[in-house]
Amino acid sequence: MKAAVKRQKFRLVDKQYQFGLAWRMLGAFLLFFFLGIILVFAPSVFRLLTGVDLAELEPASQEFLILHHRIWPAVLFVLIGMFLYTLWFSHRIAGPIFRINSVLQTMLKGEYPNRVAFRKGDHFHPTAELLEALSRQLAGKREKEGGGKPFLHDPSGETK
Q1: Does any domain span residue 10?
Q2: What is the reported pTM?
Q3: Would residue 160 count as lying in a domain?
Q4: Is residue 118 part of a domain?
Q5: 46 pLDDT band (50/70/90 cuts)?
Q6: Residue-number span of the structural domain to which 25 is assigned
Q7: Phi-psi sector, 116: left (phi>0), alpha (psi -120 to 50), beta
């Protein structure tokens, strides 16, 4: 693949896709987390519901205090971190898709980009190479037929 495109400031490319993915990932994480909490604290809940002796109930109640004082703040931190990471990660997918769509729209107008570039770290670099080869092939056919401009000579390889 050609030289990587200069990095731009991070911004969401496809907000609906990226936020949708982040919320789905967050929901899945919460579901599995709560199932784990239920499994971990089920014995304590059972002891609290069936126990009558205060000495028997005290360790179970201490476990719930640990849950409220230590686990919930950590969970909140992890959830926020996962949400932000998912937004960042989805940017590496949504950016190339946005670029592929813009190249295809350009090709539909009869202009064929000489270069299709993605940012370093983006996914789908092999797809960019295929799209570039397709563009060159179509431009070559058009040139043989004698019709118009074969290439866009100043392609912007930046993702918008």
Answers
A1: no
A2: 0.60
A3: no
A4: yes
A5: confident
A6: 15-145
A7: beta
